[in-house]
Design goal:
The structure holds 3 protein chains of 3 kinds. By secondary structure, chain A is of the alpha/beta class. Chain A is built from 10 helices and 10 strands. Chain B is an all-alpha fold. In chain B, 74% of the residues lie in helices and 2% in strands. Chain B is built from 15 helices and 4 strands. The longest helix of chain B is centred in the middle third of the chain and has 27 residues. Chain B is globular and about 50 Å long. Chain C is an all-alpha fold. Chain C is built from 11 helices and 2 strands; from the N terminus they run H-H-H-H-E-E-H-H-H-H-H-H-H. Chain C has a two-stranded antiparallel sheet with strand order 1-2. In chain C, a hairpin with a 2-residue loop joins strand 1 and strand 2. The longest helix of chain C is centred in the first third of the chain and has 31 residues. Chain C is globular and about 55 Å long. The chains are: A alpha/beta, B mainly alpha, C mainly alpha. Chains in contact: A-B, B-C. The interface between B and C is large, with 52 and 47 residues.
Chain lengths: 254, 353, 290
């Protein structure tokens, strides 16, 4: 059964249709990509899946349950994580604290325990730090910058921290929104490797929005193509590449 | 909604090195010295300084609370003094009308203020930024109105007399005795605030301030977090107010005006937004400045008491205003940042100029 | 019934004054996106400048008024240049607190220079009551209404029809686009602040002529918050609606509930409106992009 199922979702802002009857599925354990020209509705689709927009029609099902009406913050506990196109880190905080925030929903300390700190809350923090050190910081090579404030890091590194924060959520589905936009070739290759490592190590399902076709074709098991808010095509990278409608839509784009 | 902006972070050492905090021998020594100094303080200094220490302690408690709400969580409140007032009235009423001992009346003041804070915070999911600030300002004036006009409960403008608390037959009626109530409470509440920001609770506050939609994706419930910030901040304000009731022995509306709220905001800007150390420094600074001004003004105005009192009020406004504008323009991270720089310069001293 | 009409007329007349007081807030908020908590103190300062020129220098009130306007223009432009421009792009808290700080500075400085005692301005407005039909309105209230409305109307016309007014509106709706079409945005911002201070100074003189003058005159501006929330923080025409509504409500509150409720009523209105409409009655909600 598919981990994520988007069924016939339509979304409009005033008179502007952002999504029209979009359906797609993401199978567990795959890397699935959503591609399409600018303004095709990719980010709107993400915002529907993560609960920021409520679609006018259609449903979003995750791990067998209907989450269409669930508030955005309740989806974290189900195992949905995402990054944002224009990096949404907490700029004043350090790398480690940003990553720890990803684990917010897995922690239990309440206000009183936190104020007292000694005991439960301290143990919880120490355990979390240990786990992040062992499973995330090493994997993504963030050791050197763990105590640096995020705002001081270069762009590519910030993207990596955002990936790390999403991992700390212990997600089943990891939704990445243009993870390599604005990167040079070397950084892109690094990020592609991190995504594969993460899937290997954590066994998460990856959903990807990306404009870099080389990366999409290399990484994806399955690709969905959006155009003008509608699904244009779906299939393996080879299928999609051969689809004349897709070629048409991308004419003039790389 | 990014009210405070990315400028204000949490300085390293605030909770980043939390795990190492108590383990470091230096820190432990520092804390022991501070504790010893606070215990020795009232025995070695003049009565006047003990009085000022009590005033400063209560200001610290309240201002730490305001910084949790406005500095850390990014919710601008222009009505913090109203929560001092609610705490003070609740404490005084609990003690006078229900005969509660101080160790019940003071927490009751805190809890009453916290409940009021939750009430004011409830619309904060929809009312944001400037509009929330205006709403807190309106709440401040409504509090004052109730305090002035609900005479059967508050005593109106004349105020409400408070009988001193007593412990095992000892009446806490001198500044020296009250010091032993106020100072431990102040220290405990500062420690609790610092602890909050070593855990998920405090991190969530900062996340909401910096980027609320991103916080939501991480599973942080915005309304609950904002309400928690309002509740905690108002609890601090309420405890401070309750202590003030016992300390000044009278509760009246004059103590909890709009101006008092503004002075507390001044303290967190001068001290440093989003910093517990900054709140403490800011509070001490704001308590000390008027005292220094008093000396300056009396030198200027001579022996005429009435004239110097009038001049002092104006001079205080002028100086506080200049402090706000000056710090915002030239040292937006406040005294905490100055201390941090000094400390860094000190540790690096032999190696870097 | 007659009583009701009479109180209504008096309230509406007071509303004109509210509209004028609110105008300075709206000018700055619309033009530069800053809510100026020092607007009340700018009013108070204007009144003291007028008093000084008129009484101490012994000049005619029209000259004093002109001097007040020039002084206020310069003061507003100076504040914009010295403080607000340096804080451009800073978070809301910094900007709000800078204006609060400015207000404290002005209040403290005026208190030190002119002292705390009450001053009386010469009676500028005709005292004789005015009859509307069979209803009598105090001269002060009537003429301040007429003058306020004239000033508000002039401002509206200026924004709509003059070159600099249109430039101001352009800069308000999009700074980047205004720059692109060659508008000198920093100059426009300074001009906006100057104009708001001048309008404030004018309101201050009127207010002080009706009441009395102390350094606390500016505190009255806080009750204008309700006018702004009702009329919309960025709507010039809204100040008329808001002013009249609040003036009328306040008069009704005083008449039927008792005098002490008059002062708290505006704040109750603020909270009530915000609870129902978080951006004010006519305020626009900004859409957040994710």
């Amino acid at each position: 059964m598919a981990l994520l199922e988007v069924a016939n979702v339509s979304l409009a802002f005033g008179g502007v249709r952002a999504l029209s009857g979009v359906s797609l599925e993401v199978e567990e354990g795959t890397v699935t990509s959503v591609i399409g020209p600018n303004g095709a509705g990719k980010t709107s689709l993400y915002n529907v899946i993560s609960g920021f927009y409520r679609p006018q029609t259609g449903a979003v099902r995750f791990a067998g349950g209907d989450v269409t009406a669930l508030k955005a913050n309740r989806r974290a506990a189900l195992g949905m994580a995402r990054t944002f196109q224009n990096i949404a880190l907490f700029r004043g905080l350090t790398v480690l604290d940003n990553i720890k925030l990803g684990a917010h929903h897995t922690l239990r300390s309440g206000i009183l325990a936190a104020a007292w700190y000694l005991g439960g809350a301290a143990r919880e923090e120490a355990a979390l730090t240990g786990e992040i050190e062992a499973r995330i910081i090493d994997l993504l090579h963030l050791g050197e910058v763990r105590h640096a404030p995020v705002a001081a890091l270069p762009y590519g590194m910030q993207k990596r921290v955002e990936l790390a924060r999403a991992l700390a959520m212990r997600p089943r589905l990891l939704m990445l929104d243009e993870p390599v936009a604005g990167m040079n070739r070397e950084e892109k290759e690094d990020m592609a490797r991190y995504i594969l490592d993460v899937r290997e190590e954590w066994g998460v399902t990856v959903l990807l929005i990306e404009h870099d076709m080389g990366m999409v074709m290399d990484l994806s098991d399955r690709i969905h193509v959006l155009n003008f808010g509608e699904r244009l095509a779906s299939g393996t990278p080879a299928d999609v590449r051969a689809d004349p409608a897709v070629v048409e839509a991308y004419l003039g784009e790389s | 909604m990014n009210l405070i902006g990315p400028r204000i972070g949490v300085a390293p050492g605030d909770y980043v090195q939390a795990a190492a905090w108590l383990d470091s021998g230096e820190r432990r020594l520092g804390l022991a010295l501070l504790g010893g100094a606070l215990i020795a303080f009232p025995f070695v200094v003049s009565e006047y300084l003990v009085f000022m220490a009590c005033v400063a302690g209560m200001a610290v408690v309240s201002i730490v609370g305001l910084n949790i709400l406005t500095g850390y969580t990014g919710l601008l409140s222009i009505g913090h003094a109203a929560f001092n007032g609610i705490g003070a009235y609740a404490c005084a009423i609990a003690a006078a009308k229900f005969g509660a001992p101080f160790w019940i009346a003071i927490p009751a003041g805190g809890l009453a203020a916290a409940a009021a804070g939750v009430l004011v915070g409830l619309p904060s999911l929809r009312i944001k930024g400037l509009y929330l600030a205006i709403a807190t300002l309106a709440a401040q004036y409504m509090f004052l109105f109730v305090a002035q006009h609900w005479e059967s409960v508050t005593g109106g403008d004349r105020g409400f007399q408070v009988t001193p608390a007593s412990v095992a037959g000892v009446r806490l009626d001198s500044d020296f005795r009250l010091y032993w109530l106020i100072m431990p409470v102040t220290v405990l509440m500062c420690a609790a605030a610092a602890n909050l920001f070593r855990t998920r609770v405090g991190r969530a506050f900062i996340a909401v301030r910096e980027r609320d939609y991103s916080a939501e994706v991480l599973g942080i419930d915005l309304l609950r977090t904002k309400l928690a910030a309002f509740a905690i901040a108002s609890f601090y304000a309420g405890i401070a107010g309750a202590l003030m009731a016992y300390f000044f022995k009278v509760v009246n509306p004059e103590q909890y005006t709009f101006t008092a709220s503004i002075f507390q905001l001044t303290a967190i800007i001068v001290g440093g937004l989003g910093s517990v150390l900054g709140s403490v420094l800011g509070a001490l600074f704001m308590v000390a400045v008027p005292e220094l001004l008093k000396v300056a003004v009396s030198a200027f105005a001579g022996a005429d008491q009435a004239k110097s009192a009038i001049m002092l009020a104006s001079a205080r406004e002028l100086v506080f205003g200049l402090l706000i504008v000056g710090f915002l323009l030239f040292e937006p991270f406040g005294l905490a940042e100055i201390v941090r720089r000094a400390r860094a310069a000190l540790t690096l001293w032999p190696f870097r100029t | 019934m007659n009583l009701f009409i009479e109180y209504s007329l008096v309230g509406l007349a007071a509303g004109g004054m509210y509209a004028l007081m609110a105008l300075g807030f709206v000018l700055v908020f619309k033009g530069t996106g800053v809510f100026n908590f020092a607007q009340g103190e700018l009013m108070m300062l204007g009144a003291y400048v007028f008093l000084t020129v008129n009484q101490l220098a012994g000049l005619h009130w029209s000259i004093a008024l002109a001097a007040t306007a020039v002084f206020a223009l310069a003061a507003g432009a100076f504040v914009e240049r010295a403080i607000l421009r340096a804080l451009a792009g800073q978070p809301l808290l910094s900007v709000v607190m800078a204006t609060v700080g400015l207000g404290l500075v002005l209040k403290g400085a005026v208190g030190l220079i002119w002292g705390q005692e009450q001053r009386t301005l010469p009676g500028l407005l005709p005292r004789a009551p005015v009859f509307i039909g069979e209803f009598l309105i105090p001269g002060n209230a009537f003429w301040s209404f007429v003058i306020s409305m004239a000033v508000v109307g002039a401002c509206l016309a200026w924004f709509r029809f003059t070159r600099s007014g249109v430039a101001m509106r352009a800069a308000a709706s999009s700074q980047v686009n205004a720059y692109a079409v060659g508008i000198n945005v920093p100059r426009i911002s300074a001009l906006t602040w100057g104009l708001a201070a001048a309008v404030g100074g004018f309101a201050g003189v009127l207010l002080a002529a009706i009441n009395n003058l102390t350094p606390h005159l500016g505190d009255l501006a806080l009750s204008v918050l309700a006018v702004l929330i009702v009329g919309g923080l960025d709507s010039l025409a809204g100040v008329i609606v808001g002013g009249l509504v609040i003036g009328w409500l306040q008069s009704m509150t005083g008449a039927y509930l008792g005098g002490q409720y008059r002062e708290v009523m505006p704040f109750v209105v603020v909270l009530a409106v915000l609870l129902v409409r978080p951006h004010g009655l006519f305020g626009r909600k900004e859409i957040e992009r994710i």
